[in-house]
Amino acid sequence: MVTRRTDPQAGIEALGAWARDPAAARRAVLAPAVRHTLELFAEEYPGGAVELRVPPYAAVQAIAGTRHTRGTPPAVVETDATTWLALVTGAMSWDEARAAGAVTASGERSDLSELLPLPGPRRAARTAREEGTA
């Protein structure tokens, strides 16, 4: 079970702010949006087989399989905040991110193409964009 460290409402609001203007998003928006969506991902796909890293904001372990407790995990996915948020909201596909070199993935189970985007963040981002243009 994932221990929530981010206030869900703050995470949703930050995700909305990012969706309305990704280029203007700074740490005060990126940090809670990334943490919130990583926590959602880990809740949706519990386990410890893959470590997802979005430095400097957060990292979580997710996806069922062998759990590691020390040292380098058997599977690692790492990306920047903007790419992660684009992936979880559907603004960018896994294949696009990989082709652009915006995400590194190594080890078994590190292909997240079938797991992204997440429905909740995708809806929240779409709603924020629609409200921002109204």
Structure description:
Helices cover 46% and strands 13% of the residues. The chain is an alpha+beta fold and 134 residues long. The chain has one domain (8-133): Nonspecific Lipid-transfer Protein, Chain A. It has a 4-stranded mixed beta sheet with strand order 2-1-3-4. α1 (8-20) crosses α2, α1 crosses α5 (119-133) and α2 (27-44) crosses α3.
Q: Secondary-structure blueprint of this entry?
A:
Blueprint: H1 8-20, H2 27-44, E1 50-54, E2 58-62, E3 76-79, H3 81-89, H4 94-99, E4 103-106, H5 119-133
Parallel strand pairs: 1-3
Antiparallel strand pairs: 1-2, 3-4
Helix pairs in contact: 1-2, 1-5, 2-3
Please name the defining characteristics of this protein.
4 strands; Nonspecific Lipid-transfer Protein, Chain A; 46% helix; four-stranded mixed sheet; alpha+beta; 134 residues
- Count of helical stretches: 5
Structural class: alpha+beta
Instruction: Please tell me how large the radius of gyration is.
Output: 14 Å
Count of spatially separate domains: 1
CATH C-level name: Alpha Beta
Major β-sheet annotation? 4 strands, mixed
C-alpha geometry: globular
* Terminal Cα span: 39 Å
Q: Whole-number average pLDDT?
A: 92
Strand order within the widest sheet? Answer: 2-1-3-4
| Helix percent band | 40-55%
The appropriate CATH architecture is 2-Layer Sandwich
Strand content: 5-15%
Order of helices and strands: HHEEEHHEH
Low-confidence stretches: none
Report the oligomer: single chain
Number of strands: 4
Would you tell me which CATH topology applies?
Answer: Nonspecific Lipid-transfer Protein, Chain A
